[in-house]
Amino acid sequence: MNALIEGLNYINGTWQDAVSNARFDDSSPNNPQDVIGRFPASTLEDVDLAVKSAQEAFPQWKATPAPERAKILIKVAQLLERDKASLTQEMTREMGKSLVEAGGDIQEAIDMAYFVAGEGRRLYGQTTPSELPNKWAMTMRQPVGVCGLITPWNFPIAVPSWKILPCLLAGNTIVFKPAEDAPLMGQRFVEIFAEAGLPKGVLNLVQGIGETTGQAIVNHPDIRLISFTGSSETGATIAAQCGAQLKRVALELGGKNACIVMDDADLELAAEGIAWGAFGTSGQRCTATSRLLVHHSAKARLLDLLLAETAKLVVGNTLEGADIGPIINPTQLKRVVDYIAIAQAEGATLLCGGHQIESDGYFVAPTILDGVTPTMRIAQEEVFGPVLAVMSFDTLEEAIAIANGVDYGLSSAIFTNNMSHAFQAVEELEAGITYVNAPSIGAEVHLPFGGVKKTGNGHREAASQALDVFTEWKTVYIDYSGRLQKAQLDNN
Ligand code: ADP
């Protein structure tokens, strides 16, 4: 029996309860009787304290040379490596993804920490000639100020790492709110920064519920930037609120990712990749493969292979080694089950799964729906569950039109051995990411991550592009001519 964890906020370098002492429970979706702990249900008062602490820490942190800031990130990477095994166990217990995938989540943060630390010795600006003599022109990056980072539960260390690490490297200070479905992972991550020697006040943790704590962060006048990953509904609300405050906002929202399989593809490879892309993390990834578009002539064979791959997956308690774990909570479970019923009511045929599994946790069998047409809700809306909608096509043009015929544009994939098909798809798929001969998941930290259309608002996470979110450009003109020179006038 594990002891109940009494979680705390971390403000100005001190672990503390919410001012109101209110708390919320955190339990395992593998078995909701397994209560992990209780965490502060923070209010505006706590957010205020965190913002003040971040404001006070900002000048000193901004003045710390970026290579020095980077040293702390290297320490963070090392501590994550040290704790990877225990964090993996805790993550699987808290949010239910398989142990293998939880280990990958932490590895992503380790990779990100080493990568971003390297940026500490780059953080490049430009120098460029001035149009006037004896004058220099250049650009440099500067931090934005106090940033509010709001993250989801499905990548409870990796997604916070995509935000916190570049945000810190750039010299900002932070108010961080992890998801209420994975507060322990948020706390563990912040503990690592504290142990790594991050100065007090630079990273503040405020646990709580989205509608209260999250809203207090979004609407706080002294927070200059919001970086949010979560549902499109919440993202749209946050974007509107930030717009009204003229606050910088970076959004990473939903997906409805398609995988195209041509008749010239390696179908065994495609089947294996699609099962992994559609059902890993129980489909609860924003890049999950949720639509399979298969060429008519390859369909029967691919579906046979895919059903065989799916049948191999063990669904159940991931702490006991299952491949496919639970849905995160009862609300989301109902949503997934409802979507399967809606699809069938609209004419789709169930090939496998389609039901909740009788057990203590919130398990849904991997589900494949055939006979889907592009306008059905199951072909248009994000389910966030282990549900794959199958459609077929005759030409690549038709497949690309179906793939692009949704509001979202995060990830996409094509399996083909024809180079022309591959490049046509790369050029024409409306998505931030396209994989060739790999499923729609598998981002690497040194490449930009993000989507087009309603998946976001034009920003990218990870890679050096993340710095574009967390910095302002300062343009500098240095005139050493000793006289007044007038741009646009003197040379014309
Ligand atoms: P998900 O479906 O991934 O849980 P949500 O958008 O509900 O997506 O939640 C993602 C994060 O956003 C969580 O940390 C949650 O607490 C927070 N959140 C939810 N609603 C709001 C809101 N109205 N304002 C600010 N943050 C919110």
- Alpha plus pi helix count: 14
CATH level 1 class label of the largest domain: Alpha Beta
Q: What separation lies between the terminal Cα atoms?
A: 80 Å
What form results from the Cα inertia axes? globular
Structure overview:
With 492 residues, the protein is α/β, with parallel strands linked by helices. The protein has two domains: 5-253 and 456-475, Aldehyde Dehydrogenase, Chain A, domain 1; 257-436, Aldehyde Dehydrogenase, Chain A, domain 2 (3-Layer(aba) Sandwich), CATH 3.40.309.10. 39% of the residues lie in helices and 23% in strands. It is built from 14 helices and 24 strands. It has helices spanning 44-63, 66-95, 99-119, 158-169, 183-195, 210-218, 232-245, 267-279, 296-311, 330-345, 377-380, 396-404, 419-428, 466-470; strands at 5-6, 9-11, 14-16, 23-28, 31-40, 127-129, 135-143, 146-150, 173-177, 203-205, 225-229, 248-252, 257-261, 289-295, 349-352, 356-357, 363-364, 367-370, 387-393, 408-409, 411-415, 433-436, 452-453, 471-479. The strands form seven sheets. A seven-stranded mixed beta sheet has the order 15-18-19-14-13-21-22, with helices on both faces. Strands 10-9-8-11-12 form a five-stranded parallel beta sheet, sandwiched between helices. α13 (419-428) links the parallel β21 and β22. α2 runs antiparallel to α5 (183-195), α3 (99-119) packs parallel to α4 (158-169) and α8 crosses α9. The chain is globular, with a radius of gyration of 24 Å. The relative contact order is 0.14. The mean pLDDT is 97. The site of adenosine-5'-diphosphate has 16 residues, from α6 and α7.
